[in-house]
């Protein structure tokens, strides 16, 4: 690649990475705001914790399904338009969510009626389900964009940096909504009558920020290198096994998807492993405060800080795992995942065994180590799937792994809560340990898999490594 062309390419590559990081962080602005708004919704509207928890589970399940559907679309559609429009629609659904009490009142249901809370909860549940479906338009366009702009040998490092976007977005919106709950709104929580109060602003303000961000996102992104007059990445040219034609037929593309995604055992191994990664991650993230308070005697304030550090340590873990993958494991992200899940298993054992009387720094260290190890696979599964499916089917492959990841909410949400409530926290710890160990075993099934699937797709495949270096 000539020097002028390479400089232009690096400019657009950096621009794409930064724009998609900001854009994906904004998707979290209109998703993770819900958790901060829940206490206000419970007190103001009378919606129970169980029902609010059901909202979260339903949102997670529909999100996983939507990621799969959007993955099919993203591989064939302009990612710039796809992501920008999706973010606008998520912002609109959040803005509407804040007006739900007025919408229910529009249909003649007042707070004085006995079934008001049930009807309002139904409306809100449907609205948050719609938001979960729209959220699926966030990651698949990013997977398409990044695999078109980043070569496979750099993907683990650079996409690990990119993957910090969801932790950044979640952290910022929690801070923002914490300020909103403390300073905005009118009247006391629980006061009867339709009014503007703090929990609504947790939806309206992030919606406004995300809507504005979507406009900037559309202005900043470009779909592929060829759309700005640049050549495609060297070494990622894809030729189907059928005779090349000027216009690729749909039948040929479907055959390609079958080969690289739906009939590719490596994708299904990654998807299954992703289920266990997400169960462990969501169990700690969602249940961490209650688990630490009730099983270790930690105050809720301290428990909140511990879980926050779990997320921060996860950012370090994502960056480190990407660097190790490219630097030491020649891009084999699946091997890094084996080591990370083994580390997460040991951390889960340590968390179970450490007494509640242990010094606070010891608990901090264990939670940070857990976040460090579990967020490595969380970032690398998408990278490994994109490499195995190639850039032509990266979004579809990530849609498959996403379904398995968010199907975990059925176990990490309702299932984990049932275990803790009826059998105690000790069994809950054992379940986390067992699932971490199983996850490591599943990743190990593809230990000898190649770094990527490009060589298998071309007409003249070249060996990826020298003889004796295929292990």
Short note summarizing the structure:
The chain is an all-alpha fold and 471 residues long. The protein has helices at 3-29, 33-45, 49-74, 79-97, 100-106, 116-135, 139-149, 152-183, 198-220, 250-262, 265-296, 300-328, 333-353, 360-389, 394-407, 409-423, 425-444, 454-457.
Written description of the protein model:
The chain has helices at residues 3-29, 33-45, 49-74, 79-97, 100-106, 116-135, 139-149, 152-183, 198-220, 250-262, 265-296, 300-328, 333-353, 360-389, 394-407, 409-423, 425-444, 454-457. By secondary structure, it is an all-alpha fold. The chain has two domains: 1-224, MFS general substrate transporter like domains (Growth Hormone, Chain: A, Up-down Bundle); 254-461, MFS general substrate transporter like domains (Growth Hormone, Chain: A), CATH 1.20.1250.20.
List segments where confidence is low: pLDDT < 50 over at least 5 consecutive residues.
189-196, 458-471
CATH superfamily of the largest domain: MFS general substrate transporter like domains
End-to-end distance, in Å? 32 Å
Radius of gyration: 23 Å
Helical content stands at over 70%
Number of domains: 2
What proportion of the residues form beta strands (DSSP E)? under 5%
Please give the largest β-sheet: none
What is the β-strand count?
0
Q: In terms of structural class, how would the helical and strand content be classed?
A: mainly alpha
What's the CATH class label of the largest domain? Mainly Alpha
Q: What's the architecture of the largest domain in CATH terms?
A: Up-down Bundle
H/E series, N to C?
HHHHHHHHHHHHHHHHHH
Shape: globular
CATH level-3 fold name of the largest domain: Growth Hormone, Chain: A
């Amino acid at each position: 690649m000539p020097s002028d062309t390479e400089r232009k390419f690096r400019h657009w590559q950096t621009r794409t990475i930064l724009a998609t990081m900001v854009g994906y962080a904004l998707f979290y602005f209109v998703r993770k705001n819900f958790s901060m708004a829940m206490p206000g919704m419970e007190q103001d509207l009378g919606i129970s914790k169980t029902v609010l928890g059901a909202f979260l589970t339903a949102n997670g399940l529909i999100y996983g399904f939507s990621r799969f559907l959007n993955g099919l679309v993203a591989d064939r559609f302009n990612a710039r338009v796809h992501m920008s429009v999706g973010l606008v629609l998520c912002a609109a659904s959040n803005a509407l969510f804040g007006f739900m009490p007025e919408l229910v009142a529009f249909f003649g249901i007042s707070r004085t009626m006995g079934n008001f809370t049930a009807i309002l909860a139904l409306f809100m549940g449907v609205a948050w389900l719609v938001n979960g479906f729209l959220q699926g338009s966030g990651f698949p366009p990013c997977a398409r964009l990044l695999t078109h702009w980043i070569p496979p040998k750099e993907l683990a490092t650079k996409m690990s940096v990119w993957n910090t976007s969801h932790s950044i977005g979640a952290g910022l919106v929690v801070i923002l909504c914490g300020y909103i709950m403390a300073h905005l709104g009118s009247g006391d929580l629980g006061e009867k009558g339709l009014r503007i109060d703090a929990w609504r602003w947790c939806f309206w303000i992030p919606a406004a920020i995300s809507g504005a961000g979507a406009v900037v996102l559309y202005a900043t992104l470009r779909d592929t290198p060829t759309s700005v007059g640049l050549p495609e990445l060297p070494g990622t040219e894809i030729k189907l096994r059928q005779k090349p034609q000027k216009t690729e037929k749909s039948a040929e593309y479907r055959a390609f998807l079958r080969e690289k995604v739906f009939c590719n055992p490596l994708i299904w191994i990654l998807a299954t492993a992703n289920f266990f990664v997400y169960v462990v991650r969501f169990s700690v993230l969602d249940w961490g405060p209650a688990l630490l308070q009730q099983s270790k005697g930690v105050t809720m304030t301290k428990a909140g800080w511990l879980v926050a550090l779990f997320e921060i340590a996860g950012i370090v873990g994502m960056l480190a795992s990407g660097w190790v993958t490219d630097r030491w494991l020649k891009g084999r992200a699946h091997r890094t995942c084996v080591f990370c899940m083994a580390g997460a298993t040991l951390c889960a054992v340590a968390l179970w065994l450490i007494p509640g009387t242990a010094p606070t720094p010891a608990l901090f260290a264990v939670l940070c180590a857990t976040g460090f190890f579990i967020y490595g696979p969380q970032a690398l599964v998408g990278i490994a799937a994109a490499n195995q499916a190639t850039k032509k089917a990266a979004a579809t492959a990530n849609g498959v792994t996403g379904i398995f990841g968010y199907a975990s909410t059925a176990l990490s949400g309702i299932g984990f809560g049932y275990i803790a409530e009826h059998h105690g926290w000790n069994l809950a710890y054992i379940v986390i340990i067992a699932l971490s160990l199983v996850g490591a075993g599943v990743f190990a099934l593809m230990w000898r898999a190649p770094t990527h699937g490009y060589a298998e797709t071309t007409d003249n495949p070249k060996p990826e490594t020298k003889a004796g270096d295929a292990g």
